[in-house]
């Protein structure tokens, strides 16, 4: 009876985990406030792990983690506390994207413990388990669970907490005034223009080179109703920009094509960045005392503002498209968590309850039930690893695109039993952004072949056909009519958007009972 009780406890915890994930999944799908969802998640992690405290720390930048939610506040685990990445164990987990435990906290480490770790030890905590919160291409944060008891981390603990960390990666960031969100829930001006910073910097540098202005900057919306300088050029050491950012909204509120202020120490010219009647920001330049812009300089400033507005608008459109793709992926993973993992855990809980009853009446059948529970748990764990791999493709950053594509085929064979083949060739000469895009295209095409086309054979080819790198995914599934309207197929739209975002194109060829060929072409060196 004692053995049966010991077996029932993990099964009961998995059943509670299933219910917790279902509730969190529902909150994500309903668009609940991120803090609310993360606080619920931390409370679930603390309860399931029988821990003293649990916290969700999200990456504010490459060098800082910010505590966003806590269940059981202790020491420096308080909302808003900033924890450096460079010299903390949590930072190591963020960089390496693998779980790590500290036990005991007071032990001598390979380096002196950081003050945050010292504070946890001083609060009576003996062990902390850190798990990476998956993001898109990199870790988005760290889930920390602290215990007042010692002991080694068990596989059961990891299996309970890894799914919660995965759910934390699904929670969308809080929206900003322009509808976008950064990793910490605040969109900075750099996020608003995506990859256009260098081009904007060249524009303001051109103003300094061709006019008598001493400082020039592009201002874009930051947090709340404030603005911040994104690109700044100056003839001297001053790099703060020509105007206090708090004055920019006042200038834009005047709705003038340009505003010239004559000041005691010079002149200030500000021009709105406007596209189709929408003001996106401002370009401002300052002249020294006794000088002001002449007609030619004012014309140059206006032309430069028009170029800057087009760059900002293009960047925002690209970012909006990427956010739509990311939102669809979050919805997909939320559905998968509910339809596969949650159902598996629910089945385990029912099987465990039945086994407990059978132990008193039919031990042989009880053993069969326990064996079924074990098989179901292993299958669920395999599915969870597959989902996490889709969310966080470690193989792509660690071993390159060809190895990552091979891993995708291995996962396909394991989960769906499809026959697979690959002709991948050497690693293609493309940027990390292109590798990521090609990987996601292959991922979507392979998933479609297995789940929708019911293919029994999938082949992936990757080769260079100058001047393009070509990715082909071929399946022998049921296909669809060549004249079918593809506009409503979100998966194909997503793949096409990814290819176009890196300067490439995507073609899909199919026919009823003739399988499907997905072909992506991206310029070499892109």
From TrEMBL:
Indicate yes or no for the key word Kinase. yes
UniProt-listed Gene3D superfamilies = 1.20.5.1930, 3.30.450.40, Histidine kinase-like ATPase, C-terminal domain (3.30.565.10)
Question: Which domain of life does this protein belong to?
Answer: Bacteria
Q: Which Pfam families match?
A: GAF_2, HATPase_c, HisKA_3
Q: Which UniProt keywords apply?
A: Kinase, Transferase, Two-component regulatory system
Query: Where are the stretches annotated Disordered?
Result: 172-192
Listed GO CC annotations: membrane
Which PROSITE patterns does its entry note? HIS_KIN
- Feature: compositional bias, Low complexity: 178-192
Histidine kinase domain span = 438-526
Gene Ontology molecular-function annotations: phosphorelay sensor kinase activity; protein dimerization activity
Name it. Histidine kinase domain-containing protein
């Amino acid at each position: 009876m004692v053995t049966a009780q010991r077996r029932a406890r993990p099964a009961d915890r998995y059943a509670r985990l299933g219910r917790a994930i279902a509730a969190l999944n529902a909150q994500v799908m309903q668009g609940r406030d991120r803090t609310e969802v993360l606080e619920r998640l931390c409370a679930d992690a603390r309860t399931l792990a029988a821990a003293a405290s649990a916290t969700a720390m999200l990456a504010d930048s490459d060098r800082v983690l910010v505590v966003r939610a806590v269940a059981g506040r202790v020491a420096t685990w308080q909302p808003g506390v900033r924890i450096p990445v460079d010299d903390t164990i949590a930072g190591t987990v963020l960089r390496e994207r693998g779980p790590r435990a500290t036990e005991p906290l007071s032990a001598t480490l390979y380096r002196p413990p950081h003050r945050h770790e010292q504070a946890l030890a001083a609060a009576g905590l003996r062990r902390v388990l850190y798990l990476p919160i998956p993001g898109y291409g990199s870790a988005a944060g760290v889930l920390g669970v602290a215990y007042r008891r010692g002991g080694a981390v068990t596989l059961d603990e990891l299996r309970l907490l890894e799914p919660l960390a995965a759910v934390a990666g699904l929670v969308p960031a809080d929206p900003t005034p322009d509808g976008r969100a950064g990793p910490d829930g605040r969109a900075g001006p750099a996020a608003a223009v995506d990859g256009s910073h260098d081009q904007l910097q060249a524009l303001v540098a051109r103003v300094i080179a061709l006019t008598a202005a001493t400082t020039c900057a592009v201002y874009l919306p930051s947090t709340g109703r404030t603005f911040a300088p994104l690109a700044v050029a100056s003839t001297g050491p001053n790099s703060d920009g020509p105007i206090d950012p708090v004055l920019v909204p006042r200038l834009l509120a005047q709705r003038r094509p340009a505003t010239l202020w004559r000041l005691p120490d010079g002149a200030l010219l500000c021009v709105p960045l406007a596209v189709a009647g929408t003001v996106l920001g401002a370009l401002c330049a300052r002249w020294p005392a006794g000088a002001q812009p002449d007609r030619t300089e004012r014309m140059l400033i206006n032309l430069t503002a028009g170029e800057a507005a087009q760059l900002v608008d293009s960047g925002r459109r690209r970012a909006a498209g990427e956010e739509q793709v990311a939102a669809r992926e979050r919805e997909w993973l939320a559905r998968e968590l509910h339809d596969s993992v949650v159902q598996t855990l629910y089945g385990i809980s029912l099987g465990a309850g039945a086994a407990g009853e059978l132990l008193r009446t039919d031990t042989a059948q009880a053993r069969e039930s326990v064996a079924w529970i074990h098989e179901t748990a292993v299958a669920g764990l395999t599915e969870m690893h597959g989902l996490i791999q889709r969310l966080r493709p470690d193989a792509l950053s660690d071993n390159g695109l060809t190895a990552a594509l091979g891993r995708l085929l291995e996962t396909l064979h394991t989960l769906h039993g499809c026959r697979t083949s690959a002709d991948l060739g050497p690693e293609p000469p493309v940027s990390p952004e292109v590798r990521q895009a090609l990987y996601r295209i292959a991922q979507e095409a392979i998933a479609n072949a297995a789940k929708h086309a019911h293919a029994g054979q999938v082949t992936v080819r990757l080769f260079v056909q100058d001047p393009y790198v070509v990715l082909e995914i071929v399946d022998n599934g049921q296909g669809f009519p060549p004249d079918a309207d593809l506009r409503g197929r979100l998966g194909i739209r997503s793949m096409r958007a990814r290819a176009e975002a890196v300067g490439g194109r995507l073609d899909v060829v199919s026919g009823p009972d003739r399988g499907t060929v997905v072909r992506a072409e991206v310029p070499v060196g892109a």
